[in-house]
Amino acid sequence: MVDINLKLKNAGTIRRFFILMSSPGFTMIELIATMVIMAILASSTITNYSKFNMGLRIFEEVKDMSRKIIYARDYCTARKEIFYLKVDADADQYSLFRQNSSTALMLPNESSHQFDLPSYIDISATNVDAGGLEFDAIMGEPQSITANATITIGDFTITIENPTGYIHVQ
Fold it and tell me: Angle CA(150)–CA(154)–CA(159) in degrees, nearest 5?
């Protein structure tokens, strides 16, 4: 009898912290600590997700703008027409023209020749002249520029290579 009371009093090998150690599983303290750590990690992930998601939306808009410019250039080249690209950085829009700088280019499945960027997009810099960037009718090469033409939107830049007319996003 003395031996049993001694084990209970000193919390020996049979009982530690008032929990039987012979039963498998986790203690309540371990479960609560794990849930607290998971809640902290989840909250930090959720707060950073909106910034990541906005970056993806901006990148998709820049890629869409690049694709439309490439398609318009190839569309005009196939028809042996001169293509003009006008970029208005103040209004955050760009326009497509053919033959001369005032004849609107209506691409198939598009409702306008002028494209307005969403409100969360800002054209921060461009070196495309206000009169427009002209691409020739035979090879689709940019004319009247000595350096690469660029359109900067946020962290991304659309580059039109001189003299080839290769268009890519960085």
Answer: 20
DSSP-assigned letter for residue 142: B
- Res. 130 pLDDT band, cuts 50 70 90: confident
Encoding tokens for residue 143?
Answer: 């004319």
User: Please, what is the average pLDDT of the chain?
Assistant: 85
Global confidence as pTM: 0.70
Q: How many CA atoms lie within 13 A of 102 on its CB side?
A: 0
CATH of residue 95's domain is 3.55.40.10
Q: What are phi and psi of 141, to 5 degrees?
A: -90, 145
| Residue 12 counted as domain residue | no
What 3-state class would DSSP assign to 135? Answer: strand
